[in-house]
Design goal:
By secondary structure, this protein is an alpha+beta fold. Helix content is about 45%, strand content about 15%. Helix 1 runs antiparallel to helix 4. About 15% of the residues are buried. The model has no long low-confidence stretch (mean pLDDT about 90).
């Protein structure tokens, strides 16, 4: 119970404090490669329950249809996506998954 309250508190604070950064990243993604801004993928969570993980999109739209393996200098990664990946900023929306209780 205490761990879950901690998860909720931290994820709320992070999402609120970083909301302006989220907006800037979203605008950069749209200007660089269009919509959608977020990438969702089914992953297996707690107790083996599948959920949709949320990330900022770092590849061209529908790039996952061309294969799942990402290699160095992958042409599917956008310019903004390369920056987001380098600094792990593409992972920040996962705090929403934590808030919901999926992670």
């Amino acid at each position: 119970m205490i761990e879950r309250l901690f998860d909720i508190g931290v994820s709320c604070v992070v999402l609120i404090v970083l909301a302006p950064l989220f907006c800037l990243i979203a605008v950069a993604i749209v200007l660089d490669s269009g919509r959608p801004v977020f990438y969702r993928q089914v992953r297996v969570g707690r107790d083996h329950v599948p959920f949709r993980i949320l990330k900022f999109r770092s590849m061209r739209p529908n790039a996952d249809l061309q294969g799942q393996l990402t290699v160095n200098n992958d042409r599917r990664v956008t310019r903004v996506g390369a920056f987001l990946r380098r600094y792990k900023l593409d992972e920040l929306p996962q705090f929403a998954n934590v808030l919901i209780g999926q992670m």
